[in-house]
Protein 1
Amino acid sequence: MSDAPFHVFIVAGEESGDQLGATLIKALKQRLGGDLIVSGVGGRAMTEQGLQSIFDMDEIAVMGVTAVIPRLPKILKRINETAKAAIAAKPDALVIIDSPDFTHRVARKVKTAMPNLPVIDYVCPSVWAWRPGRASKMRTYVDHVLALLPFEPQALKELNGPATTYVGHPLATRIIKQDQRLETDTRKTLLVLPGSRSGEIKRLLPIFQQTLQKLTSVRDDIDIVIPAVPHLEATIRSTVSQWPLPVRIASGEDEKKAAFNKASAALAASGTVCLELGLANIPMLATYKLDPIASKLRFLMTTWSTNLVNLIIDYPIVPEYIDVDLHPGKLYRALNRLLDDTPERHTQLEAFKVLREKMALEEGVSSDEKAADIIMQLTTKSRSS
């Protein structure tokens, strides 16, 4: 076994990956003490854990075809720079986190130059949802996938992908406790979650406004709360200030947690937040409005649902309203049912018990700790040789 410090090169491409990278570094530190070197690409959270990013992660944190195309030359340049830096660093392991259009290109280049280097993909790409052929191609440059969703190991196996282990989702280790207060509260809190990207909120907020106007016209017992991500809070505040109905903005993590703990139901953009709502025991409607280019490519989708709760439970529990189905009349009627003591509400609440059971890890183990242990196991052989 080498006496040199353990060196891991981590590449994250957006904020969620930066958060995962930060908790992973922290877990590795707990196991190795000061015997750890971290390099790569990350954001504020990973920097706070000691990473010196080779460039600002925000340069590559773009989503959607229309956003990527203008910045493609710079992104390609950063892919080459990152791969060269990883090869020069001669780390014990390369960990790529999400953002597959960037991180996987880096991994391919590094694996070609260093075929014996363990490459770990933290967050399984959505090969089970679209472009399934990517799974088998990953075998040439990824040694192991750390999956956040419990159905992904089997999905990768069926698609002839790399070895995969379910390490748990960070949300599952910090479930927000949700009390049932339908019988005692005179008012109900409705969460409105229009997404974490500017394009999403621009497409969804006008439809949400119409929905909420219809809903508040038939009932007066609702408090509407929008938990706003920091980089979009000003935009959301400016938009809803023009609405002819009262809306409260929940700013910061503490206010968001308080709002989740009090919520009776939610109207949300489809995404990870729906998983968070399910784990928090909050009945919801899932919505999404694609940009024009993505809408034309929707036929490439191979999954039967876009909602993570439905996919994990393996049954269409959460109603989904996408594109042409995204009608205020449909939304407000469905929301009205979820806010009261109805079969629709009870069906979701019962299903959320199954969701928590499926996502649970062994007691006392967190997702980042399990990920760190697997990474260290995978690198033992290469360090010993």
Protein 2
Amino acid sequence: MVAPQPHLRPASRQHATRYETRILLLALGVGAVPIAVLAAVLWQLDAPPALATTALGVSLLAWLFAAHRLRFEVVYHLQTLANLLEALREGDFSLRGRRARRDDALGEVVLEVNALAQTLREQRLEAREASALLQKVVVELEIAVLAFDREGSLKLANPYGARLLASSPEALVGKRAASLGLAELLTGPTASIVQRTFPGGTGRWDVRHATFREAGIEHQLLVISDLSRALREEERKAWQRLIRVIGHELNNSLAPIMSMAATLSTLVARDPLPGDWRQDLGSGLSVVGDRAGALSRFMTAYASLARLPSPNRRAVDLAQLARRVAALETRAAVRTEGPTLRIEADADQIEQALINLVKNAVDASEGQGRVLLRWRATGDGTVVEVIDEGPGIANADNLFVPFFTTKPGGSGIGLVLSRQIVEGHGGTLTLENRGDARGCVARVNLR
């Protein structure tokens, strides 16, 4: 327990004595006693006046010199320390105290001040380097970075932000957010995606704002990033993949149809008709019908993928649903494992997703290996896993490409539809090779 300190009142200006004056008076007071004793001794010994005067004069001079020297030693070193500390306060970390020793009390203080100056110098250098790096990054960012003070006046704008507002950073500084058309972005949600037209561009933008403090004063930071370019690039890639797959499927169906149509045209143009023309015509029409049916199934599958409704969530017994999914598979025995667990989900959609995953697992195992469907609760949701003993994943690049399949008669939408269902529930679907044995794990994380 630290004892409370008495309340100290500063001395008034009228009665305050300077520190160096107090040191001088203290030194004079200490020397006055020996001088008085010397004078008394000379008086008692009845010394000759010349000798007494000389002795007292020398003593007085030595007394005064020692007092002033003591004052100088104390004041000089304190002033040195004051100069060093003043330099630190002013931000000059280059000054150092000299002739300081570790075995000296004053030297210890000077060395510690020197060490403090070196530490502050290194920290300022690191801060300047970090600030220069941050400034360089902000300048090069293809994202608008705008800082406003608490009155809503713009204090900083990077080059991209200035281009977005069709001005220069210097011309923008000091303008109000309202005059720049940004006031509602500062008062809206902290993170949002908006469709908006700025003086320097139109499109979809990711808008984020937050508060920060500078010199104890609250400021606001507004960050605006263009999503249109990234969305257009992703859209272009998606269309390329879709067109490639659709083109492949259409060619697979239209090529034999066109070939068979040409063959049948040649057949019926012959005169007289061959004896087996009816059989050839029926076989050709059967091929055309089969390929037209495959094309129809393909378009139906595409429509089901594109028109997936939003999940209708309700309480679902996951254990009961999983066992029902396992019972639907008749080609192989699907083992289930997991506790009684209820989740909020669209039962029909989750069941369809698990049916697709179990079907793929059985296909991969070729009806020979074991398939395990298990589930468990986690700290932030539920994990459902479908584990097979197939060959595993050789190439994961096309796993979720719509209509891509390596299985005869496959539609190529099972995994895509399953992932779309899971993501519609706010979860994730991943596929990876098993680490403990041969096979693959399809893992569904639901939150």
